[in-house]
């Protein structure tokens, strides 16, 4: 597709998700973070504190936008009002890119506010391809979609998740926000090999990586974003980088949010992991 | 252009997907059986559905508590969770952003007898107004100096406008001391006995000063004057309506006094 709005904000290196707990750290201390990711919906408000801090922090950091409500896989019509608001925020922020999740969030205008899995079927692929194209045409840019973690699978599934994801990226001509933790969580929940998933990802379409912590219940794993990144996920991350090369990477923390310095230390770990993976692959 | 065959395949797939999503939704929000929907897989899918069910309710309960922190404290965890559970089922979220979840709580408690004390409804109305003032639209505020520069003949027909964050509430109970006590408790972490609610019909104004929501209780005459201003009445009309409450000679002085305070507080948008 043609990128009608040229994207001048360059994103590379290692980032963090911007959370309200850390507003003052970013404004006052300006810690070294290559870029920040904001949750789009948190700033799709008329005014006040959220937009004040967003504008202020944007002056010092490149930003990417990450949405949770697009419901790209939903069967309700695309929410044009939501898309218009999203576009307004894009104009304000001038983000490096815009992402959301490969999922649906509600049906019959009932928003469940959750990232619900798609049935991995040809019908879903057709539906998603059409909608991704509509969104990309409206926004005038390619979007990134993130693979979500899941706890159940549909009886109707016709293919594996990795086949589904890579097929969609190519049909819809969109990019991937690859969440390594989500691959790990789903691999444990569904009993597949996460390395096979990584192998199936088209390297040139992977534009961003998410790392996060999860909660291990033994026979299932929950994607909680309230723990540090676990060893198994670091290993999968190193493998991903070795295979596809360096990709802008960030750590997501949404609960039990620690002081910023702890996240900065964890981000340094990500830098080291990526560097060692690149060295090994060379 | 899409071919007829592609369009009809898309429509058929869409119906199938819609049915799957409807069944999934029922399984999550209403403990629906989801027969045939999920793969048997490596573990019990019904147990796994519990993860979604739990996440759905806890996420919305948390969102409601974030919008109504004082109400949540006043009710306590158990009673607040019970109220949230009823509200979640009665008023499913229809907005893309969870930030607005709870926008119908005032209406809901007005229709259903679910609060242990009627003063709690006024408390939650105060909280929602604070919540809306927090991220209401930005606008420059008028200053005393700007108004002082107006020619005297401009005053009678002057129509002032309120800042977009301003919200006027009519309350039946004196909930301000209760809100203050609950908010103090949240800051100190020490729970103290709440003041007894007193029945008292009055008005209150909520707005945002800089980045911080504020509120102030109003006497009836000032509240009425602020409402007249909100309706778009001229300065002359404000004075005339104040004169019906206070004595006619002193009314303009009162209005000017209120106006000075509104300007100092940042209630008036730039003229």
Task: Give a structural overview.
The complex is a heterodimer of chains A (282) and B (271). Chain A has 282 residues and is of the alpha/beta class. Chain A has helices spanning 23-29, 49-58, 80-93, 122-139, 161-172, 180-190, 194-200, 231-244, 260-281, and strands at 14-17, 35-39, 63-66, 98-101, 104-107, 110-116, 144-146, 175-179, 206-211, 215-216, 221-222, 249-251. In chain A, helix 5 (161-172) runs parallel beside helix 7 and helix 7 packs parallel to helix 8. Chain A starts with 13 loop residues before the first strand and ends with a helix. Chain B is mostly helical. A three-stranded antiparallel β-sheet of chain B has the order 1-2-3, with helices on both faces. In chain B, a hairpin with a 2-residue loop joins strand 2 (199-209) and strand 3. In chain B, helix 3 (69-90) packs across helix 5 and helix 3 (69-90) crosses helix 7 (176-188). The relative contact order of chain B is 0.10. The chains are: A alpha/beta (282), B mainly alpha (271). At the A-B interface, helix 2, strand 5, strand 6 and helix 4 of A face helix 1 and helix 2 of B.
